[in-house]
Amino acid sequence: MGNLRIWILKLLVLALLPISQSTPSHMNIQKKAKPAVDGTTIQFKSVTSQKNLCANSGGGDFIVTSCDETCEFDHFRLWRVNENTFRFRVPKNQFVGLEGTVVVAVVTNDTESATFEIIRESQDSKLVRLKASNGYYLQAREDNSVTADVKTVSGWGSSDPTVFSITFVEVNMHVYIEGDFQLQNGLGSKAAQIMQEHYDTFVVENDFELMRNYGINAVRIPLGWWTAYDPNPPFPFVSGTLKALDNAFTWAKKHGIKIILDLHAAPGSQNGVAHSASRDGSIEWGKTYDNIQQTLEVIEFFAERYGKHESLYGIELLNEPLYPYVTLKSIEDYSRAAHKIIRKYNPTAYVIFSIRLSFVDLDVPSYMELFPLANSLDYTVVDLHWYNLLDYIKPQEHIDYIKVNRTRQMTELLSNNGEALVYIGEWSCFWSAQNPTTEELKEFAKAQIEVYDRANFGWSFWTWKNNDKNWSFKWLIENGIIDVNQIKR
Ligand SMILES: *[C@@H]1O[C@H](CO)[C@@H](O)[C@H](O)[C@H]1NC(C)=O
Ligand SMILES: *[C@@H]1O[C@H](CO)[C@@H](O)[C@H](O)[C@H]1NC(C)=O
Ligand SMILES: *[C@@H]1O[C@H](CO)[C@@H](O)[C@H](O)[C@H]1NC(C)=O
Predict the structure, then answer these.
(1) What is the pLDDT of residues 344-378, one digit of tens each?
(2) Which ligand gives the minimal distance to the CA of 476?
(3) What pTM does this model have?
(4) pLDDT for 146 beyond 90
(5) CB burial readout 305-328, b (16+ within 10 A) else e
(6) What is the CATH number of domain 40-168?
(7) Ranges for the DUF7910 domain (predicted)?
(8) Whose atoms come closest to the Cα of 400: which ligand?
(9) How many whole angstroms separate alpha carbon 260 and alpha carbon 276?
């Protein structure tokens, strides 16, 4: 135990699987076809009443057309069927459907919900009509009800109750969710080939050689839960990720690099954002026994397949669960069971816990909250993601924040962590500083590495390769922003 514990790793994120930050260029295909992506939130305003369609009570009732500016239930999340056809999901998670010709939101089973074709006046216009699966157009009636009973339409006049104006709504700071679900479902029949090309070319053996040369001794690989079902992953995912992961283990062994497996996208999504492969922003992880059971099966799949591999260093159970949607209780129940499963295959592989995030600044759970759990089990690590999400203008303010505030937090962590190790599992050189000089960017990187080096499980950078340079470790090294000598030691 001792030897491994004093072995201070420097870790690095390898974006082997294309989850959000490592967006393949093919993502542009989707951008052109917007809003044809899963999870986009849309409001429909009737041109006649100038009110929005909304789900009465948020769902479980009629769709009505009486929503004004203050209405909270006028958000419809798209589930893409094909380029123009969608299911609509309302705030309380029911799907929009028909009872006779009346439009309602009562079913929770997507396969039993109705589909709607969105017919746009033209690509650049906000005017649309909605055609229901019964072949009729929706109309906003004067009595506030919505019905699908108009057979023929003409023109786009402002007195036509079948015409709506659409608005795309920003949710969690994004208008479009751009994750694996959107990408693969959006690519449709082309997904298998395009994704395979990406898996074959994005990370290759040469990357492992380069990492070794740069002094990197481990990679943290983000995984989607569907990899456990390869070669027949469920809709909309395509096969190929398991082979890519096998390759990573082969190359890691050859080049002396350790691997940390990181369940980045768990069944049902643990945070609702793109990188957890959420379909429409909803967070279903941990809500049912079946869901936790399925996640444990996924962990068992990876533990069994790679548990005896000499390059396996640790398994991270659940990346960035979101507070308060994911409860501490569900994390604890799941983590104890997962730890037990991993120990069946490997007595000393580290089991890593990622702290809960919150999107609400003033209501963030303590970053110490997982230490009691971690300390009740053996070979455990607590992972914190330290990004610079400050809106400081001056570069020096960011650098000072690292040197003062992060240093203080690190000291606190290292004096209260107990047996569990501390890991800065994600950081980057992204910041909001205005007009920084190259020297300042270098100092920013250097200051971060100095502080994160103190973490007794090490750190990893998000990510190895990225189109956005400040999130690309490779680019930052190759362009002299990050000094290799600081990593090598
Ligand atoms: C949803 O409906 C379909 C078709 O009726 C059925 O086969 C399926 O079992 C239902 N799923 C759930 C979760 O109820
Ligand atoms: C950083 O620490 C300083 C000094 O203790 C404090 O005044 C400041 O509010 C902290 N900054 C942030 C963003 O927490
Ligand atoms: C990266 O950071 C530098 C320095 O802050 C900035 O000048 C540059 O615009 C950023 N690049 C990208 C692609 O964000």
Answers:
(1) 999 999 999 999 998 876 678 899 999 999 999 99
(2) 3
(3) 0.90
(4) yes
(5) bbbebebbbbbbbbbbbbbebbeb
(6) 2.80.10.50
(7) 37-169
(8) 2
(9) 17
Q: Note whether 103 and 62 are within 8 A (CB).
A: yes
Q: Nearest residue CA, atom 9 of ligand 2?
A: 405
Instruction: Give the ligand whose atoms come closest to the C-alpha of residue 113.
Output: 1
Token pair 């967070």 in the structure block, residue: 283
* Ordered DSSP codes for 161-220: TT-EEEEEE-BTTBSS--SHHHHHHHHGGGHHHHHHHHHHHSS-HHHHHHHHHTT--EEE
Nearest CA to ligand 3 atom 1: 470
Which fold, 4-18+175-486? TIM Barrel (3.20.20)
Does the bond joining 324 to the residue before it have cis omega, within 30 degrees of 0? yes
First to last CA, the chain: 24
Token digits of residue 373: 């759990």
pLDDT tens figures, 440-455: 999 999 999 999 999 9
What is the distance between the alpha carbons of residues 171 and 344, in angstroms, rounded to a whole number? 41
Q: Is 196 exposed, middle or buried (0-12, 13-18, 19+ CB in 10 A)?
A: middle
Structural domain spans, the chain: 4-18+175-486, 40-168
C-alpha 155/C-alpha 68 separation (Å) is 26
Q: Give the residue, out of 399, 405, 411, with the most ligand 2 atoms within 8 A of its beta carbon, to mutate for a pocket test.
A: 405
